[in-house]
Specification:
The protein has about 140 residues and is an alpha/beta fold. It has 2 domains: about 1-30, no CATH class; about 35-140, Cupredoxins -  blue copper proteins (Immunoglobulin-like, Sandwich), CATH 2.60.40. Helices cover about 20% and strands about 25% of the residues. It is built from 2 helices and 8 strands, in the order H-E-E-E-E-E-H-E-E-E. The longest helix has 20 residues, at about 5-20.
């Protein structure tokens, strides 16, 4: 078990009553609901359309570890690469995952990115890419 997951779950016991009181108001623990959830082997929804300047929030809603990583060549020209873990390119993110689970999002973890250039952004969960865990953010003017 990863240390962050253990600490989060240990703390969740004491805060369960507080979370129940907030349920339905602003998402769990007072956070707004995520735009994209991560299931066991899929992003939900698989495609999302937003306006330029929007911030998309992903949340790992499963018990499996995931990443959010723009694919190589998957961002429009002039757009910023994005990846959980803050990597500058796909190869760096892949290497970090393979060596030490870099960019890991455990259950309940969130990642967000603000999109400033219109176009289609393709992304993948590195550990589940062979299983087809891909997604797309379409950014419109």
């Amino acid at each position: 078990m990863y240390r962050r997951r253990f600490l989060r779950e240990a703390g969740a016991v004491g805060s369960a009553a507080a979370a129940v009181g907030l349920a339905g108001c602003a998402g769990v623990d007072g956070k707004p609901d995520p735009d994209v959830g991560m299931l066991a082997a899929a992003y939900q929804p698989r495609e999302i359309t937003v306006s330029v300047g929007a911030t998309v929030v992903w949340e790992n809603t499963s018990a499996r570890a995931h990443t959010v990583t723009a694919t190589e060549g998957g961002v429009p020209d002039g757009a910023e690469f994005f990846a959980s873990g803050g990597f500058d390119d796909y190869e760096s993110a892949l290497s970090a995952w393979q060596s030490d689970f870099g960019g890991i999002l455990e259950s309940g973890d969130r990642f967000e990115h603000t999109f400033t250039v219109p176009g289609a952004y393709e992304y993948v969960c590195i550990p589940h890419r062979e299983g087809g865990m891909y997604g797309t953010v379409v950014v419109e003017e």
